[in-house]
Amino acid sequence: xxxxxxxxxxxIFAGDEPLPLPAPAKAFLLWAYLLLRRAHPxxxxxxxxxxxxxxxxxxxxxxxxxxxxxxxxxxxxPPQDADxxxxxxxxxQWNPDGAYWLDVALLDRFTGETASEEQxxxxxxCYRDDLLEGFYDDWVLTERERLRQRYVxxxxxxxxxxxxxxxxxxxxxxxxxxxxxxxxxxxxYRYLMELYYxxxxxAAA
Length: 205
Prior knowledge:
With 205 residues, this protein is α+β, with helices and mostly antiparallel strands.
């Protein structure tokens, strides 16, 4: 099983063994882009435009072919001879049925209304930091903000659920996570003051 962490500093594991990130950086970014759009085939033309927007079209196509080859060479062998990357003449897609775990997928598919306590803990803990720390391409920044807001929404759901259950200490802990991720918002400060007051911590309130 391949474990892929894109939240925070990117990391890859085959089982418990850490693996190096694909290199050079453009090969890794090609992989990350396919992972983030794993549900559908991505046109090759789109990949060349997004990842190699600063070169000519012909050079971008050549770069895509070369970096795809490098990426495939560096990924571990897939189980049961199932390709990690599904390719046609016009599209590429990360195999959605491959034997892998992806932190972003956990965040994307989470549904708080039906989640168990274990699922809540897993989704809250999977967000180690913002997406692809150290990378600043325009498309990365857009995805980073989308996932940050997704995580903030999940934390807000968690606080509301904990308050409804009377787990005020848990709600305080989750609100502190919320403030760490989005310190400019005023609502979490109000939540925290209310919660401290309700647990009798007047000094913190």
